[in-house]
Fold:
Amino acid sequence: MSFVTVSNLWQRYGTRSILERVNVDIHEGEFISIVGASGCGKSTFLRMLLAQEQPYRGEIRIDGGTPAREPNLERGVVFQKYSVFPHLSVRDNLIAAESFNTPFGRLSRNARKAAGRRADDMLERIGLNHVAHQYPASLSGGMQQRLAIGQAMNAKPRILLLDEPFGALDPGTRLQMHDFLMELRDETNMTVFMVTHDLQEGFKLGDRVLVFDKPRWDPHDPGRYGATITYDFDARDGGIPFQMKEETDVSE
Amino acid sequence: MRWINKIPERPAAILLAALPFLAIFLAYAIASDIRLEANPQDKLLPAPSTIVETAQRLFTEPDRRSKEILLWNDTLASLGRLAAGVGIAATLSLAIGLAVGLLPYARSTLSSVIAVLSMVPPLALLPILFIVFGLGETSKIVLIVIGITPFMTRDLAQRVLEIPHEQIVKAQTLGASSAVIAMRVALPQVLPRLISNVRLSLGSAWLFLIAAEAVASNVGLGYRIFLVRRYLAMDVILTYVMWITVLAFLIDWLLKNLSRRAFPWMEAGL
Structure:
């Protein structure tokens, strides 16, 4: 049973085509890595999954629901940077995941205590309890990203979107973050989409690796044709391709 | 070694900072001395000792007729007007700035009109204000508000726009409504900017205050300066000018410290 359904998705800015004819079905609990060259539309695809952008044509449904018109609670997101609030302490950033969903953005005393306890649990899980009362700017890049992931998870989204979450981290921290993310995923069985530049990272973490590329190329007008999913790898057993998309029909 | 790489040591730095002050004082003292030597009745550049005496008298001795110390009355009146004007301007600019920065509809409606209004020279409107609001407190406060609000609003709106869009999107994925994003994400992040805006616009606020007081008033620091100008009482004027400078400096210092106390997260990265 498909959980996230992307059907015939197109995106274009002005006359420049970015994505065309993207069709894919994602099962619940799958970890999807999205790779491709720069400017191939993988970030655009993520923004549409996030409902930050509306598709030119086609639609994305989560669990058969109506396509979203703006970002909402169903989608959690972690960007490469700026995903946490600099004016809130680490602990308050986690509590914000619950308090922002109220009419005034603040919790009652009791609700705040309960949220505080859950925040402490999450702090434990993401290993940040020793810096609970510091501000994000004083944390290292890896800690900030752990906080961002914890914050997104605290809001209990149905899908988690990661936009090059480890792109700004040094290689050692990156490896630690991989372990952290895998642990968290094993515990929650969340459906995750991760855009990455790093092929190795994509295959290591993902159950499936989607490759975005342009199947058609007009040398006189590079913006003419958009990219689509050209390969859909099963990455669970070291990345042996189980399905190669048939050559896209150009005449269609 | 290049001059751009030469850094003064601590004692030298303090001495260098004191140097211009000393130079100003010396230049004044010498000029005053020369004039007083030629004519002991000269009122244009009173001796520093005369100024100190006058200052003592102004700060401590009550006026013969009203039995009140005029300088304190003037100070209270002026600071009250300044606080009212700057307070209203800050509140207005914060509300409009947040709206313009966050809501595309407000931006489309208001951003051009604010840009045009900020070009209107406020002092040119002073006669209109006196006609409309009378010669009382209202017109003076309104002049300050009109004078500094557009600039503060534009700057705050710009700051709101500069908040990384990632944060706004993230807040939405946490279920925040527009109001919650305004109150919990944008507002706390532009408040430090509001304070530094207030600090920057205090200079203009004083200018508008003194201008308004000079034209029509019966109490106030600016009023007093323009009143005693008729008697060429330079010692009184200079005392008032220095007093205003001290007040402005103190307010600025207080705001700077308030900002540092109230927003510890600003310095977390340093």
In short: Residues 42 and 263 of chain B are 52 Å apart (CA to CA). Chain B has a mean pLDDT of 91.
